[in-house]
C-alpha cells in the first residue's frame, strides 16, 4: 500500500500562540553581539530542521511585529472553527511577496561543513503561504506531537518502502484517507475535497472510475480564490502532482505543507512549525540528504524553485493591464521530479551510495496465446544515460523476461493501463516485488510507436537533426518519413515512448535523450540469424537464466545480500564502472574459445607482473565514477539543458556553494582521466602484444600502436588543465578562462583593452591641450570625468559639461568621455555575460570529446576486471589452474573433467574438501548422484556450475586442473520453493523448470537437477524422475542428477549411459535393532563411485533436534516398510 497517501491521517494541533503577543512575532534580525564564528558553530551543532531565528530586540522590529497584528475581524477568524461544509480556508492572505529573499552576491557564503546549511541570514516569512500570526518562526528540536498521538502516525505512515507510486483502487484510497476529526485538527483534514467520499482527480473523476488518475487532485476554484497567493501556488502544483512530495522553496528554505508535512515529520524527523496548518521545512543546502531519504523509501519528490526575483515580479506586474494579488507573487516552478528510477545525482543530491545500476523500465505486452506473450522493453540507468531497447517472444514461463529482471534489476516499472495480462502482473509481483510500479494512460502518456518517432524527430534532441543510428535501425524500410517502426521493433519503440514521456514529466528528458546513447537489447539465448548448424554452439555467450542465477547464488545470496555470491568473491575491481561491467560479464560468460583464452592470457600476464598490478591498482582506487560524472557534467553543459528549462531560471541561495561543487566535480573528472592516462603509461615499458593482445588493446595508445584502443588524452587534458586556474576556480566558484579558451570572453576582453587604449590616448591629448596633468576621476557609471586644475580651466570650451569640483580642481564630461564610458559599460556587460555561462560552455567543450572519454572508460573498465581476476587468483589458497578448452570434433564429444575442484564462493578454500568430477567424453554424460541428507550433493552441483561460469569468464579456478568443451547454457533445478503470489506449488515449479530444460537443452549444455519429483508421491516422483533421466541420456548433455529414489538407482545399475556415484560417509549404529537403533553418520563430503544404499534421513532429523523417541519410532517403521517392499 502506498504510504504517500497516508497524508490524511490526523495529527494533533500544535499549541496556538495568542495573537496579541507581539513579542512572539517572526524576526529576521540576529543579535549584534553574536559573532559570526559563534553563530556558525551553533548551526553545525543543531539539526537541519532547527531554525535559528532570534526574537526581535529593537523597537523597530517590535513596531513591525505590532503592525502585522492589525488585521480585520474577518482575517482573525480561526479556520478550524468554520463548519465542515466550508471548503474555503479563511486564513489571513498574503497581499504581497515583494520581500521574497534574493541572494546577495556580497553576502557571506554558507559553510559547506555545516550540514544544516543555515547561515547568518535567516529566511523571510513575508512570502510564506501561511500567515505568521505574530509568533516566532521557531523550530523545536523536540517533537510537538504528544506521545499518544504519535502512535496514530506510526500506524498510518509506515517506514517501509512504497510499492506503488499512487493508490490504485477505491478501497485502498478509503483505507488510507478515512480519518476521524477527533484524532487530529490539522486544517487540511477538514477540507471536503480531500475526504475519501468526495475526493476526485484533476478531471473530476472519482476513484471508482476506470480512468481515475491518482496523480492529480481536484481543488475547487472557490477554495483557491481564498488562499494566500503563495499558498494558491502550492495547491495548484499539488493538484497536478498529488503523488509527489513538494519541496516548496521559500527564501532559503524548502517548506512542506499539509499532507506533505505529515510525511516529512514522520520520515525525515523534522518537527512541525506552530500554527493551524501542518508545516515543516529545512535549509536549501540540506536538500540532497532529505530528498534522498524520501526517494529511498519509495516517495516521489518534486523540487519547486523560485524562478523570479521581486524586481522581475514588479516589472511583470507593471506590464499587466490589471494585476491581481495572485499575480503579485514571485513565480515558482517545478524544476525536477525524482523517483527511484529517475535519479541523476545532481550536485545538490550528492553521489550514489553504490556502483550498481538502478533501472527505470517500461514494458509492453502482446499475447501470442493463452500461455505465451511477446514483450517490448526499454530500460535506462538515468545516472548514466544509456537507453536499452528490445523486443522478444517469450516461453510459457516468461524465462526471458525473468532473466531481464535478474540481470538488469529495475527499481521502477512503467506499464500501460490494462496493457498487461494477469500472468505478467504476477511475474512483476514476484520477480521484482520491491520495484515501484506505475501505470500510464494509453496514447497520452504511454505513447504509440508513431507518436514516439514523431516526437523524437520534432523535438530538438539531436544537434544535427538526425536520429542516432540505433534508432534509425528500428524504422521500417518502406517508411521514408521515419515515423513507422518495423514489426520487429514496434513494441520496443513504444516502450521507449513511455520512458521519454516519464523523463519529460521528471524534467530530465533532454539531458538524457540528447546524449544519443541507444543500444539494442537482445535476450542472451537468442541465436544469431545465420546460425543453422545445430551441432555447433549457437549463442555468443553462455546462457544463464534467472533460475540459474538464483540457484547458483551468482548475484544474490537469497537473502537480498551479496555475501557468499560468486560476484562478491571475484569482484576485486577498483573502479565503479569496472564493477558494473563485471556484473554484465558474469551474467554472460563467453562461448568462443579464442575470446576466453585472450582473457586467460591477460590475467596470467598480470599475475606474473605483480609490481605493475599493485601500482595500477593504487592509481585506479583514486579514480571517481567517471561514467556517472561524465553524464552529470553533460547535463550541466549548454548542450545538456534546454534553454527553456526552469532550472535555468531558478534562484538559489547556495548558488556559490553549488557552483564550487560543480567546478570541483569537473576538476575531479579531469584528474580521474589523468589517472587513467597514468595507468596506461605504466604499461608502456612492457611489450604485451605477443603475450596478450587483449591487454595490448586496453593499455596501448591507438595513435601509436595498431593493436591499441586507448585514446591519447594528453592534448585534451592539457587544454582543460590550462584553460583556467583550477585552484582559484574552486575557491571562488567561478571560471576565468585563459586566453584562447573562449572566443566570446576573448572578444569582450579585447574590446575592453581597445577602450583602455583609447582612454589613454584621449587623456594624453587632454594633457597636451591644457598643458598640465589631467586625470580621470569617478566610479561606476560616473567614471572618466576629466579633473582639471583651476589654473587651466580657462581653456575649457562649450563642449565641456561641468560635473562638480573640489579644492583646486573642477570635473567635466565631454562627448568623447561619455562615448568612452558607454563603450566601457557595454564591454563590461559583454564580459559579464560571457562569464555568466562560461562554465556551461567549458563543460560543453569537454562533452564534445565524449567518444574519446567513453572509449578510455571502456578500456580501463576491461583492464580493471582483468586486474581484479588476477588479484582473485592470487588470493586463492591451495590449488589454482587455468582451464583448458577443447574444440568439439568427431573424436571429441562434449565433456568436462575437474580434478580437485573446490567451492569458489567462500574465501579460505582450504576448509573445503576438493572433489573430482568427470562427465561426458570417454565416460557417461549423465551422473546419477546419491548420498545421505546433508552429505554435500547440492553443494557439489553448485560448485561445478560456478567453476564452469568462472572458466568461461576467463578466470583462473580453484582446482588442480579443468578440461572441458564449451558449455552453451547451464540449467538448474535445485531447491524447493512454492510461489504463493502466483498460486504455483512446489511441484508445479519443479515441473516448469524441468520442462524448460527438456525443451531448450542441447548436447553442449550442463544440467544440474537436485532431487526431482519430491513434491509428489513416491511412485509418481520416481516415474517422472526416470522419464526425465531417460530423455537427458538421449540428449547426451552433461548432467548431474541427484536423487533419494533408490529404486531409480537400481534400474540404472547396468546402464552404460549413466554413471552411479554418491557422496561418501561413515555410518555407525547404536542400540537394539528391534527397539530402534540410532544411526550416527559422519559426512566425508567426497564424491565416490557407486550408489549409496540409503539416505540416512533419520540422522538429519536427529541433528535438527527432532525428539529421540520419534526418530527411533520412525526408523523402526522404515525398516518394516523395507521388508514389505522386498517381500513384494
From TrEMBL:
Annotated GO biological process: mismatch repair
Composition bias type Basic and acidic residues, residue spans: 31-49
Alphabetized InterPro entries for the sequence: DNA_mismatch_repair_MutS-lik_N, DNA_mismatch_repair_MutS/MSH, DNA_mismatch_repair_MutS_C, DNA_mismatch_repair_MutS_clamp, DNA_mismatch_repair_MutS_core, DNA_mismatch_repair_MutS_N, DNA_mismatch_repair_MutS_sf, DNA_mmatch_repair_MutS_con_dom
SUPFAM superfamilies hit by this protein: DNA repair protein MutS, domain I, DNA repair protein MutS, domain II, DNA repair protein MutS, domain III, P-loop containing nucleoside triphosphate hydrolases
Ranges annotated as biased composition (Acidic residues): 72-114
Domain DNA mismatch repair proteins mutS family: 1005-1021
Alphabetized UniProt keyword annotations: ATP-binding, DNA damage, DNA repair, DNA-binding, Nucleotide-binding
Example of a GO MF term: mismatched DNA binding
GO cellular component, one term: MutSalpha complex
Keyword check for ATP-binding: yes
Region of interest (Disordered), residue spans: 1-151
Family the UniProt entry places it in: Belongs to the DNA mismatch repair MutS family.
NCBIfam families: PRK05399.1 (NF003810)
Known function: Component of the post-replicative DNA mismatch repair system (MMR).
Protein name per its UniProtKB record: Putative mismatch repair atpase msh2 muts family
